[in-house]
Amino acid sequence: MGNGADITESRYFKLNEGDTLLDSGTLMTRSDGNETATEQFTIIQRRRRGLFKRKGGGLSLTTVLRTGDNSFSMDSRWDYDRDLHPTLAETVVHSSAHGRTRDFTAGFTFKPHKARLKISQLKNPMDLTIPCQKGWLLDIDPSIMPAIILLRRYNRRKGGEQTFTWISYSARNEHFGIGRSAIDIRLVQRMKAKDNDGTLANLDYFIADERAIERFKKPGKLRRRFHLWADKKHCLRKAVVDYPDQTLTIMRQYDEEMARELQPLSQFMKPPEFWDEDEAPVAS
Prior knowledge:
Blueprint: E1 20-31, E2 34-45, E3 48-49, E4 55-56, E5 59-67, E6 72-80, E7 86-95, E8 102-111, E9 113-120, E10 126-132, E11 137-141, H1 145-153, E12 162-170, E13 178-194, E14 200-213, E15 219-231, E16 236-242, E17 247-252, H2 256-261
Parallel strand pairs: 11-12
Antiparallel strand pairs: 1-2, 1-17, 2-5, 3-4, 5-6, 6-7, 7-8, 8-9, 9-10, 12-13, 13-14, 14-15, 15-16, 16-17
């Protein structure tokens, strides 16, 4: 799984005495066979502190994400408590898309029933307070880290379809839109696939559907479908993300052999909810 050495360029990476490195590596994103981005990451279990070990013990994630054309980069830190509720997140972004250079820092802090977002930049700084209930998660697009936390929040003993809410923030969107989405995640099947060392790994295949939450309690339109494969340690081994207009494949570096075995079931690809009724494809 790596030793975290390839993520030390992140300004946020720090492994303290007593902390445990749970996972690390590089995730490669591909679209139509072309590599579009890489994301180096670490997941650290912070040590418990105090006489009765009642403090700490949460997770800390760091990531460095870069697009293939170097037009966008994001260096991030995500902190969670022992119940995997977010406590804070910060990301430093550089973007030169569309001939416009932007450098800014976006920081989230969570104190339900509210969350605060501060964006620091030379022009149009932002300071927003938005509603946030206990248990909500945070999605910062285009990172896949929120899906990794979602896998850890899913209660495998309970099973079935479970629904979560996350605050969605786009770090690469020119309009910096903030919204709220519901994510329905379910376990599709358990399976085996060949690991890097030649042994068979036990994997769980999940599907998670994200829908925007609209006003007046009307369900939003399906925005993304995640196909997620995780091993018994809850580590993400591959993801396929369906959008209405494209499909992204995210796999671990050096995991190509396993990735070829992990394919979405055809009946779950591009569901009809992606299209408006008058644009839905005609069945043959």
